[in-house]
Amino acid sequence: MPPATGNSALPVKPAPCLPELPIGREELTVILNKSAANAVENATRMSVPQSEKAVLREMAREQPLPDYKDGWNEKKVITAIQKAKCEGKIILPEEYLEDSYILKHIDEFKNDGVAYLVPKKNLDKYGRDILGWPDGTQFIMKKTDLDKIINSANGDISYIEKCLGIPKDAWKNEIIVKIEITDCKIINLRVPSGFEMGANELWKVGGFLLSGYKEAVCDNILIGNYKEIELWK
Q: Do residues 96 and 74 lie in contact, with contact meaning Cβ atoms separated by under 8 Å?
């Protein structure tokens, strides 16, 4: 998960029921259709060069291991996920990760606050009423971790790309904005399953980026529940 990338070949879960909105059904359909078009556009950036994979995997060597339930490990999870995808099924992290691990992981996001980065042109083109992927998901990070990355980058977007697992130069010369979610209680925070549209080939089991930073997934974010902040303005 990394945020802003994905794999359109993954099976798509039906989008969750959304709360009542101050817009009509037809307008909502248009918004969601635009989000789908956004996903297709982003899918052209999914391929990650082998050289970048090697660098990112090297960064992940010291990454802590998830707490698996008895009988599970990373290899077994990956094999089970690949089989499920071929069969059009979905395996949730609750099946192979300890409940205590999942609760602790998500509590960190609730306590810290959450955010993610996105090119401003995507918001300008597809709207700001509903943010996220058409399958009803969005990858997010802890706000303090994302702020640490932004501050360390000091204006170098390639550094951010590397930390977040974004293909090299995908965000070059782009205006990037940070989306800070206001109320974490209503966005259904959870550990990524790898079946999300935003998951790419660098997805890792247990809610980690290859750079070692933690990630989670939430439902689509509705207008009024986020702040948009342009980087390095």
A: no
